[in-house]
Every structure is written in C-alpha cells, then in structure tokens.
Amino acid sequence: MAQKESDLVKTTSLSLQIIDEIQTRNGTTLPELVDYLDLAKSTVHRHLTTLRHHGYVVKEGEQYHIGLKFHNRGEYARTRKKSYRLAAEAVQGLAETTNEEVDFLVVNDGRAVAVHTSYHRNSMYQEEVIHPTETAQHSGTYYYLHSIAGGKSLLAEFSDEKIGRIIDQWGLPKRTENTHTSRADLFKDINQIREYGVALSDEEYADGLRAIGRRVLSPDGSVLGAISLSAPAYRLNKDITEEEVTEHLTHTVDKLEEKLVTSVTLSD
C-alpha cells in the first residue's frame, strides 16, 4: 500500500534515492550525485559517509558502489520464510522435469521480483540486472507485472482497483510488439486468466520467448507468489506443448500448496 508523503522520513528517502542512483549508474561520483539530486555537496556527502560506515556503500577511487551488505540482507529476505524455501524446491523440480527456465516471483513495490530461479543452460533471454555490462540472470531481477506470465497471474488475483493503482505507479512499458500497452487489452487478458487459472505471455516480454505462469496461494488464501516457466517459442511448440507445460506447472503449484498447508499444520 502506498504511503502518504507526510508519513515518510525525508532523510531515509534521500539515502534510498542515492542507493538507487548508484546502482542505476553502475557506480557514480559525489559531483555526479550532487548534480543529479540538486543538493548541497555536504548533504550528499553525509549520506554517503553514513552508508559507507554501515557497509551499504563502498568507495573505489572516486567512485561509489553498492556494498555487499545488501547481498547479506537479500539472502536473508529470500530465505527467511519456509514457504519461500519450499517454493525454491518446487522451482528446481519443475526445471528438472521440463529442462526449461523456471521462476518463483513475488510482488514487491508494484512489480514482480524473482526470489528463486532455475535457468536452462542455453538460455538466450537474459536481463541486465546487475549493471550494464553484466547480462547473467540472477534472483532479484525486477519485472513489470503486465509483461510476464507470472506477473499477470499475480495481477489476476488483485482487485481491478488495485491493478489500476499499479498501472498508475509504473505505467505499461512496452517490451515488444506483443506487450499490452492499453488497460483495455490488459484487463481482457486478466479476465481470461481469472477464468482459466493460468497466464500466458506470448512474446510479450522478449521476442521469441513464451511463458506460462500460475499463482501460488498461502494456506490462508492470500497470494504468496507465482511460478512461471519460460521457453523459446520454437521449443515450446516443438519439444513440449503448451498443454504439457500447463499440466506440469499446475501439478507443481498444487503440490507446493499442499506442502505449505502441511508446514503450517506441523508448526502449530
């Protein structure tokens, strides 16, 4: 839920903005940050000094970079829940069964973030998630919900009002000619997903890439995340059919949800 500006701590927001900019630029200098933020040099320097002191930023020469403290925090965030660890097992199992790319995604700040991934060794479709010169896929990748199968399966669980707020926040960026860029087209697709229970991304995220996704529910009925399987369109049609993928995916999600119920029962 979006917070009112009056509820936010401005100094904390500024530190987070600095962190975002350092990562976006793949490292940056103090003068560059001062110019971008249009703030006093002393103000930006104090934030950088504080972030360095706590290990969240490192300085290499004149360049500031993201520190490895985030790696420690990120690993904790994606493994602290037993449900996430069970999802990781499900992802690995489905990847081994189909020999295709599989993700477990959750919603964070109106987008989908990959919490666990298992990639086909010959994958052509890679996201620039770390910095502009590094193209290996990693957990932690953010995706716009409307352009990927797992994201659309998550949207289908939300109210139309909540979907509208997410669109207001991020828009409907175009990835390919097939990406939904109008609300009407997206809601038509979402209504079909609500009816059939699975989402299809037909070259909407990357040309030549198809994917099928299904939401994962927690024992209390809330949405935990989504599992999606991606494959080049030629392989999905030739080596494995859409029906087979849907069957494998549905079975995987059903088994995961059963394990989630059991884990809650055993912990009571």
From TrEMBL:
The protein's name: IclR family transcriptional regulator
**Do you know which InterPro entries this protein is assigned to?**
ArsR-like_HTH (IPR011991), GAF-like_dom_sf (IPR029016), HTH_MetabolicPath_Reg (IPR050707), Tscrpt_reg_IclR_C (IPR014757), Tscrpt_reg_IclR_N (IPR005471), WH-like_DNA-bd_sf (IPR036388), WH_DNA-bd_sf (IPR036390)
Q: Which residues form the HTH iclR-type domain?
A: 9-68
Question: Is this entry keyworded DNA-binding?
Answer: yes
Alphabetical UniProt keywords: DNA-binding, Transcription, Transcription regulation
Matching entries from SMART domains are given as: HTH_ICLR (SM00346)
The protein's superkingdom reads: Archaea
- A Gene Ontology molecular-function term? DNA binding
Native source organism of the sequence: Natronococcus amylolyticus DSM 10524
What residue stretches are annotated with the IclR-ED domain?
69-262
Entry's Gene Ontology BP terms: negative regulation of DNA-templated transcription
